[in-house]
Design goal:
The complex is a heterodimer of chains A (491) and B (261). The longest helix of chain A has 32 residues. In chain A, 53% of the residues lie in helices and 14% in strands. Chain A is α+β, with helices and mostly antiparallel strands and 491 residues long. Chain B contains ten helices and nine strands. Chain B has a six-stranded mixed sheet with strand order 5-6-7-3-8-9, with helices on both faces. A three-stranded antiparallel sheet of chain B has the order 2-1-4, covered by helices on one side. At the A-B interface, helix 12 and helix 13 of A face helix 2, helix 3 and helix 6 of B.
Amino acid sequence: MRWLGRLFDNTVYITGVTVSLAVLVMFYYIAHESSYAFRQTFSWGYRLALLPADADLSTTPNSALYSSLVAVNAEGADGLDEREETLPAPTIEQMQSEAAFLATATTLVSEVSQIREDQLYRDDWREPKPAEREERILVLGYASPGYVHSTMYLAWEPDHSFAPRLAPYRLVLRLVRPPQGVSVEPFEIDLKRQASGRVALPAWAARSDAERTQGYVFEVAAIPQTSTFWATVRGVLSAEWAPTLIYPRYGIFPLLLATTLMSLLAMLIATPLGVATALYLSEVASPRVREWLKPALELIASVPSVVLGYFGLMFVAPALQNWLGQSLGIQSGRNLLTTSIILAVLAIPIVASVTEDVLKAVPESLRESALALGLSQSETLWEVVLPAARAGVVAAILIGAARVYGETMIVWILSGGTATMPAFHSPVAFAQSLVSSTRGIPDTIAIEMGNVTFESVHYGHLFLLGLVLFCVTVIANLAALRVGRRQVWRV
Amino acid sequence: MVEPLNALRAEQVAVETRALNVFYGDTQALKNVSLPVARHRVTALIGPSGCGKSTFLRCLNRLNDRIPGFRMEGKVRVLEMDPYSKHTDLIELRRRVGMVFQKPTPLPMSIYDNVAIGARSHYGLRGKLLDEVVEQALQRAALWDEVKDILKRPALQLSGGQQQRLCIARMLAVDPEVILMDEPCSALDPVSTFRIEELMIDLAKDHTVIVVTHNMQQAARVSHYTAFFMYGELVEYDASKQLFLSPQQKATEDYISGRFG
C-alpha cells in the first residue's frame, strides 16, 4: 500500500504533468490539422473560347459556350475531365442545327498529366502535387460548319473569383498548331500579365466529327511561380472568405478584422464602465452596498453567454433598429454594434470583479498617506490608488478582452453572419460597416465545422482560424499575467 | 528650557483633548484621555503595544474615520479647529496636521512628484515655484543632496531610511503646523534613526511634534514632554526629564525600567 501513499503524495506533480501534456497535445493537434490548409491545392479557373466577332466572352453564359469552359487546375485537369464526362461534346449535326457558333473541345494530352491521372481519381488531397513541374492542357478549337465569317476570336478571362497573382501557378496560353492549310504564327500569352483579352484567328470550320481533332491546338501551361504553402499563406491573407464557391476563397481578414473590431468596441465600452464600477465598489460604496453588489456582479459574470445573446436578440437588436434604423440606414439589428454592446455586457463584470480585487490589494497605508497629506478622496483615487493598481487594472482589461475575443455564442447569435471586409476608406463607410452584418472567427468555426468534409482544405482552414484565435487569446492572457505580476506594490 | 506642564499658558497649548473616549465596535481603545500638547515642543507618547497611542494620534487628523466601527466621545482641539465638528474642512485640517507613518509609504510616482503632489493640490503651485518648494522640503528633510540628481526616478528605488525622509519631506512641502509621527524609526537602522531624531529636534523649532515611540531612549533623547499610556488610559504625563528620572506612578516606573512591556 505504500506505493498508493506515494501516488497520493505525487498527485500534484502527476496532475501538473498531465495538464501540461494535454495542453501540448491540444496545441499540436490544432497546428497539425491546420497543416491541411497549408498543403492545399489551388483551383484557379479560366474561361476560354473561340468566339465569333460579335460575341463578348464576359456576357456569354457558360451554357452557350458549352464545353469551352476550361478549368485549369493545379491538381491536373481534374475538373476538366469531370466536365467532359458529364457534358458529352455535341456532334457536328447538332451544331449545324444550333447556330453558327464556335466551340472548343478540350482534351487532356500532356504526358505528365497522364502519368498523374491514376493518382487523380484517388481523391488524394492529402498529398497534393507539389508546384514544381509544368503542367499542360491541350485545347482543340474549331468552328461549327455553319460559320461564315473569315475571322474568329480566341477569348479568355479569369473565372469569376480569383486573382491570378495569388495562384501558385503562372498560366501561359500558347498556340501550338494551326489546322492544316491555315497559316498563323504561333503565339504565347502570359495570363498573369494579361488576365483577359482576345486574339483574332483565321476561321476554320470542322465539317465532320473526325475533323474536330485537326482544329486549332492551344496549350495552357501551368508554370509554378510559388509553393502551395506560400500560395496558401497569400490566400489566407486576402480579403474574402467564401469557402463554398467552386474556387473557394479562404481570406482570413474579414473574420479577423470583424472579431478584432467588435472586441475593441466592446472593450471601449466595458473598460470605463468596469473600472468605474470597481472604483465605486472598492473606494466609495458602503460595506453594506458592497456586500450584495459584488456577488450580484459575479452572478452576472456567470450568466451563460447564450442567454446574453438571446437578450441581445430580443431587446438590443430591435431597439437599435427601431431607434436608429431609419436615420442610419441600418438594415438589420443583428450587426457588429449590437454584438459589441452585448460583448461589453459580458466583459463589464469580469473587468469590474478583477479590478476590484486588484484595488483591494492596494495597501491601506497608501490611501492613508495620501489622505493624511490632505488630498481629497478623488485625488487619492486618481493620483495614488489607480497608479498603484495600474498594472493590475491593465491585466483585468486584458483578461476581459481575451474572454470577449474568443466568445462564440453571442457573436453567432447577433453578428448577422455575413463575412464582409469592414470599410476603412472613409469615416462614413467605416461607421456603416459598424452597423452592418458581419461575422467573426469563433462563430465561423462553430457554424462551418459541422458541415465540412473531414480533413479537407476547408477543414484545415477552420483549424487555422482556431490557431489564430488560440494565439491571440493566449498572448492576451500571458500579457495579463506578465503585467499583473508587476502589480504587487511593496510598502 | 522646558516649562513644567502646569505652567503652560493657554496660548502655549497647540493640541488638546478632554475626556476623549474612543471605541472600535465593542472595544474601548482610549479611556477618558485629557492631554494638552505644548506648542513647538516634541511630545513623546510611550506605552506597550495596543495601549492607544496610535489611536490618539489618528484622532487628531481623523484618519480613524476609515476604520469600521469607529466611534468617539469627548473633545478634541487641534490648533483652533475641532476635527470632529461638521463645519471643519477636513482637507484644511490635514494640511495643517502632517503625519509620518511607521513604515515608509512612498507614493507610486517619482521622487519629485511625491514631494510635489501635496503642494500642487493645496496651493496650486506650478513650475519654478513648485521646484523651489520641493527643494526646500527635501533640504529640510536632509535628503536633497542624495536625490537632487535622481528626482525623476520612482520613489520606491530609495532605501528605507531615504524613503522615510522622503515621507517627511512630502509632509513638510504642504507646510503643516502640527506633525504627528507614528513610530517613524521602528523600521529603520540606527544611522537613519539618528538622522530622523536630529530632524525632529530641528522641526520642533517651528512645529509642534507628537511622536509615538517604543524606544524609551529615543523618547528621553528627543522629547520635551512624555505621556505614558497603558490599556487606553493616560497613566502619567510630564516633562520628559521628570518622567524618566522620577516617575510618580508604579506602572510608569516598571515600564521605563524594563520590568514589563
